[in-house]
Amino acid sequence: MGDARCAWCGAVLPDSAGAGRRYRHAGHRQAARRARRHRSKAEAARRTLVTVGSTLLTQVERELAGTAAGDGRAPEEAGHCVAVARIPPLTDHLVRRAVPADRQAGAGRPQTGRAPGISGEAARARFTRRDTFAGPPGPGDVPPR
Predict the structure, then answer these.
(1) DSSP assigned state of 143
(2) Rounded-to-integer distance, Cα 33 and Cα 39, Å
(3) 3-state SS record for 31-43
(4) Which parts of the chain fold into alpha helices (H)?
């Protein structure tokens, strides 16, 4: 059995390990379990993020297409600027979905704050409120136009 290796660290398992043993010790087994759980949560969060991102992209495209086509709204001199001005709240919504996805994947506060240009402490304060979005997207998850 000298060929058997720990599934976590790759170290050779002792000959007395037994036929079904996969890890050197319980700490490695627990670390592997935590890593699997993180990957599972991260995958679910990633799917939700992709769904919300595509929904928001569709909404932005609809907004710009409606401005270009003159969809019956009152004509505005700066219609394209009005449509583009609606994009920041949509991206803020997407960032609020991305942060929990990154946190579930194991990213720390400094990493989640780096992209929006804020400190880790500011990211903790901003993105750990009770109103931070969680769970699958629902009909009310897209900000109103």
Answers:
(1) P
(2) 10
(3) HHHHHHHHHHHHH
(4) 26-69, 79-85, 87-104, 109-114, 120-127
